[in-house]
Amino acid sequence: MNKQIAISAIVGTIIVLAITVNTLSENQAEAQTTPFPSREKVISVTGTATTSVDPDLLVITFGVETQEKSAKDALVANSESMTSIVNTLRSLGVSEDDISTSRISIYPIYDSYRDSVTEKYTQELVGYRVTNTITVETAQLNKAADIIDGGVSSGANRVDNVSFTLSPEKQLEIKDDLLGQAVLNAKKKAENALAPLDHKIIGVKAVTLSEFGIPPPIPVFSASGAFAEDAAFKSSTPVFSSDQDITTTASVIFLIGSN
Q1: What is the pLDDT, as a whole number, of residue 168?
Q2: Does the 57-165+217-241 domain belong in CATH 3.30.70.2970?
Q3: Most confidently modeled of 27-31, 201-205, 223-227?
């Protein structure tokens, strides 16, 4: 009888231990899968930086349109006008490296008429039109008026664009400087916000920089057409550049702690 009681007690103890061990294992598994909540204190701030810069690059696009009965004649006439324009630009101090061909096209010109017998509309080839466009990019901003006048007087019958912009070198210089200023501005904002709360910055958790966008070129005018016969345009053309405002932002998440 006593042996049966002892055996029953031992079996009961084993069952209790098994339940206890199983419960502990489940609790440990739950603790491992449930992340401990972060106790980091942070403040998120966006800083800005703006600067006004002078453009350092002048961009002018000239075009020559010629039309002749044959494609060869149209090309020859166009080439002669374009050669004259380039020679004039070089005489003004524009380097060959600053002149590039933007586009050249040749396409037929048709004249439509109605046949009196068949009463159907018919197209007749009457010639070819050649369009040649060159772009001048120069740092000589003070020669803008001379370059325009020289190009038009030498045969350009299209002036498609005159604008001021920033060179790639100046863009990179401004970008590096502005991003640093934006981060410092974010830090200053965070410090000002934390001062009344008796907290301070103790680290940086993340920094997000905005895409640095250069403003579009400042157009003096954008037009096309035959300027060669425009007496007003033949006179000296005043052209002035102006400053460009550039802004960038930086979002910073600072780690904070009490003073």
Answers
A1: 85
A2: yes
A3: 201-205
